[in-house]
Amino acid sequence: MIQPERVEVLRAGSPAREGFVLLWVQSSVRTVGNHALEYAVGEARRLGVPLAAIFALNPAYPEANARHFQYLLEGLRDLRAGLGARGIPLSVRLGDPPGEVWQAARGASLVVTDRGYLRPGRQWRADLAARLDVPFVQVESDAVVPIRVVSAKQEFAARTLRPKLHRVLERFLVPVDVQEGAQGHPDWDPGLDVSDPALTVRALGVDNSVPPGEEEGGEVRALARLEHFVTRLLPGYDSGRRDPNVDGGSRLSAYLHYGHLSPLTAALAAREHSGGGPGLDAFLEEMIVRRELSFNFCEFNPAYDRYEGLPHWARENLEAHAADPRPHLYTREQLDAAATHDRYWNAAHREMVRTGRMHNAMRMYWGKKILEWSATPQEAYATTLWLNNRYQLDGRDANSYASVGWIFGLHDRPWARRPIFGTVRYLAASGLSRKFDAEAYARRWS
C-alpha cells in the first residue's frame, strides 16, 4: 500500500485525462519496493494515459567521479530492463536535471518523482515545480517511515528519535502493492545507451582518478546480496558485523544510497527470514533508526555538510583545544596516500581506496585519527569529508554526513576531557585489538 503520508504535492492541480504521466526517477533507481513507481503506474491507469520514465544524469554532479558514475549506471542498466519488463520505457538524458525533466514533461498531464534528503535534489525539485504548468507529486520511498511523520525538528540522538519512530513503525512496515496494467509511452526516446556502464563512463569524460570499486551496482546485485545476507549472515549479524576480518556485515549501504535497494524491502526480508533475536534487532536498528536519524539530520540542519552544522558543545570543545600539541601532523596528500605511522589507519584507508567501502569497525577510528592529526578541527572535518566522499561508494549520502559528524560529536554526548578532543569522544588503537585481530586486518590491507 502507499500511505498518504508518503505523498506530497509540489505543484497543485488536477491532471488531465490526456497526454501521459512522467515518472522522474531520481533517488529510487529500482522496480522492487518503489512507492513512486507504483503511484505513477496507478495514476496512469486511473487517467487512462501512457506512462514514461526519465533519469537525468548530471556529469558535473559535485564530488562524483568514475567510481560513482559506473555504480550509478549499473543501476540504470538494471532499471531500464526492469521497467521494460513492465512495458514502461526509460529515457536517460544528460544535462541539468530540472531542465531535462521540464523538456521531457511537455505534453504530460502529471509528473511524479521520488524523494531525497540532500540539498541538490531538493533544489532540483523546487526548480522544476516553479517551471511546470502541470501537477507535480513527490512520493517518499527511501525511508521506511516518512521522516516528517516521525519528527518535525532535528533530533539530538538516536535515543530521542527511536521512541517516536517505533510508535508509528508497524503502520509503514508493510509491502507496497504492485500496480499492473500500465501502458508505456509508444514514442519515448531512450536517450543514453546504458547497456555497457564502463564504456558509457569513459564516454562521459568524468573524473577518472578513482577507478570503480570491487562490487557491481544495480538492482539485480542488490537483491542477490540481500538474499545472501538474510539467509546466511543475519542470525550472527549482532557480533559478526563487529569484526572486519570476517564477512559478517550486510554490505547493503551503497545499494541503499543509489536507490538500487529499498530499505523497506530489506527490513521485510530480514523479518521474514529471521525468528527474531539480536541479529535482527541490530539490523533493524541500523536499517531504520540510524538511517532515518541521518535523514532527519540532513532534512532539518541546513549546514549538514559543513563544520558549522556540528553541535555547539562539540565545536566549543574542539576549538578550545585547537592549540593543543598534536603528536603527528599530516597533510591531506599524506593521508590520501596512506602514508602515516599508524598501520591500522593505513589499512583502513587502503580498504576504502581499493574497494569503495570501509568496515564500520574501522570507520570511526579512521576519522578520529584525522581529527587528532590535523592542525585544526575545521581542517580535519574538511579532509575527512573529502576523503570519504571521494572513495566511498556510499559517500555523499545522508548516512555519510551523519557518520562524519559523529566523529566530531554529532548524535553523541560529552565524555571525559582530554587533549585535542576536549569532551568529544576519543578512540585509541588499543581499543581495536580488544575487539578483533587488528594485526590480521593490517596484514590483509598492507
CATH topology title of the largest domain:
Rossmann fold
Oligomer designation = single chain
The total beta strand count reads 6
- What does the radius of gyration come to? 22 Å
Query: What do the pLDDT scores average to?
Result: 97
Number of domain modules: 3
CATH class of the largest domain: Alpha Beta
* Strand coverage percent: 5-15%
Poorly predicted regions are: none
The largest sheet is: 6 strands, mixed
Strand order of the largest sheet: 1-6-5-2-3-4
Tally of helical runs: 20
Helix content: 40-55%
Indicate the structural class.
alpha/beta
Keywords: DNA damage, DNA repair, DNA-binding, FAD, Flavoprotein, Lyase
Pfam families: DNA_photolyase
EC number: 4.1.99.3
Family: Belongs to the DNA photolyase class-2 family.
Structural summary, described in words:
- The chain is of the alpha/beta class and 446 residues long.
- The chain has three domains: 1-141, Rossmann fold; 219-300, Serine Threonine Protein Phosphatase 5, Tetratricopeptide repeat, CATH 1.25.40.80; 307-444, Orthogonal Bundle (DNA Cyclobutane Dipyrimidine Photolyase, subunit A, domain 3), CATH 1.10.579.
- Helices cover 49% and strands 7% of the residues.
- It is built from 20 helices and six strands.
- It has helices at residues 35-47, 66-85, 97-104, 119-131, 147-150, 158-172, 197-204, 219-233, 237-240, 253-257, 263-273, 278-300, 312-320, 332-336, 343-355, 360-372, 377-391, 398-407, 429-435, 438-444; strands at 7-11, 21-24, 51-57, 90-94, 110-113, 136-139.
- A six-stranded mixed β-sheet has the order 1-6-5-2-3-4, with helices on both faces.
- Helix 17 (377-391) runs antiparallel to helix 18.
- The radius of gyration is 22 Å and the shape is globular.
- The chain starts with 6 loop residues before the first strand and ends with a helix.
- 50% of the residues are buried.
